[in-house]
Amino acid sequence: QVQLAESGGGLVQAGGSLRLSCTASGRTASRFVIGWFRQAPGKEREWIASAHWSGGNTYYADSFKGRFTISRDNAKSTVDLQMNNLKLEDTAVYYCNAANFWGPGTQVTVSS
Predict the structure, then answer these.
(1) More confident residue, 54 or 101
(2) What 3 state SS string does 30-99 have?
(3) Which pLDDT belongs to residue 68?
(4) CA distance 83 to 69
(5) Exposed e or buried b for every residue in 5-25, given b needs 16+ CB within 10 A?
(6) Residue 29: its pLDDT value, please?
(7) How confident is the model at residue 2, as a pLDDT?
(8) How far apart are the first and last CA of the chain?
């Protein structure tokens, strides 16, 4: 069993930045690949990026390359998603995922 929790969401103006964090607990958490996803109102959940919980290679959906960065923060023991140059269309609930486990999500709202 893995418990996931996202944090760092909020309201930001277009062009701004936010850093989301995913914490994981559970005996096997360190074995998982962590994925960040998002779901905008009326749209399907889409994959953004993935990284192994212990660090190493990262993977991105093409549409997020260059603006979003996934990374492991050893000090905080989190997998973070740095989001830069945010656009109105980035407004969504952001989730972290490990295998079949999901966090409750964190709302990101980008305003004009």
Answers:
(1) 101
(2) HHCEEEEEEECCCCCCEEEEEEECCCCCEEECHHHCCCEEEEEECCCCEEEEEECCCCHHHCEEEEEEEC
(3) 98
(4) 7
(5) ebebbeebeeeeebebbbbbe
(6) 66
(7) 87
(8) 40
Residue 81: how many CB atoms within 10 A of its CB?
A: 27
Mean pLDDT of the chain: 93
Contacts of 63 (CB under 8 A, 6+ apart): none
Q: What are phi and psi of 85, to 5 degrees?
A: 50, 55
Q: How far apart are CA 75 and CA 13, in angstroms?
A: 28
**Tell me: the pLDDT tens digits for 71-106?**
998 888 899 999 999 999 999 999 999 989 999 999
Distance CA 4, CA 103 (A): 5
Q: What is the DSSP letter of 26?
A: S
Measured distance CA(79)–CA(69) in Å, rounded:
10
Of 4, 11, 21, nearest to 107 by C-alpha is 11
